[in-house]
Amino acid sequence: MLRQPLLLLSRSAAVQKLVSTMPVSAGIVRSYVPGESTDAVVDATARLADDGLLATLDFLGEDTLDADQAEATTQAYLELLQRLAERGLTRSAEVSVKLSAIGQFLPDNGHKVALENARTICRAARNAGTTVTLDMEDHTTTDSTLTILRELRKDFPETGAVLQAMLHRTEADCRALAHEGSRVRLCKGAYLEPEDVAFQDRIDVDKSYVRCLKVLLAGEGYPMIATHDPRMVEIASSLASRNGREPGSYEFQMLYGIRPEEQRRLAAKGEKVRVYVPYGTEWYGYLMRRLAERPQNLTFFVRSLISK
Ligand code: FDA
Fold this sequence. Notes:
alpha/beta; 8 strands; single chain; TIM Barrel; eight-stranded parallel β-barrel; globular; binds dihydroflavine-adenine dinucleotide
């Protein structure tokens, strides 16, 4: 019931302004975001690596309409990649990039700016010995994001993308991307979407997720199964073995701070597990989407705002 209002608030600049003075160390934020600085996220990556977990790192920010901000975000990724290389962590960590944070929404030439900035990040990732995965934002960006993916893959075929099971189109997108060399992160989808493009009931999203899993795990690509849902994890495991896939020919992915004991359990079983770790000061939209998934956490959030 609270999902819709929380997702609407996730795009409210006024509410963002109101809460964005809150330090990242405050309770609920800290449970999903390990810190603001590059050092903080690199330290978190090292701790995960000590526990046998891989990471994908996201410099928080989205929907920018400012070309300088898009450039600053690109530079932040370059600094991050350099720091990961210095710490010897590029075998266990890659980066996740939201195209709207690097210029996709800029008027006139947003698509082109985002493509060029993404290319810069892909080149730095390649030089550092790691990869980039493009996050997927709301459905209005899907075509542009998949077009940018195709362009990037000409020079950087290791680039991955996210597909969202809640969209009607996604099963077909999975078929198109289930080819050799392709890396697809399958998630349920975190945005508020209209019913003409997306399944509205959880059960229908779950059914779509399973159909997409079947396509990806039977395909030639590298599926990245991004979910905390125990049923989806179980179904993915049995589909993987039914398709003769060994652990390592696919991976499980979960968000930092969500079901950490399950992340470690799967890794201890020999599965490849990657944790999505966001960092930075622009945590508002990310946090609101996490609260929308688990409105029980709203009480903690409000309490931490009041006690600030
Ligand atoms: P579901 O929401 O049904 O949750 C299953 C269980 O997980 C819950 O019962 C609860 O135990 C636990 N859980 C879920 N959310 C929680 C929370 N916030 N706090 C505490 N516990 C929680 N989306 C998108 O639109 N674009 C993207 O690019 C990405 N990228 C991405 C990367 C990775 C690695 C992951 C894991 C997820 C994403 N997502 C995403 C988010 C995704 O679409 C989805 O919103 C969340 O993963 C929640 O969906 P689940 O599959 O976990 O199932």
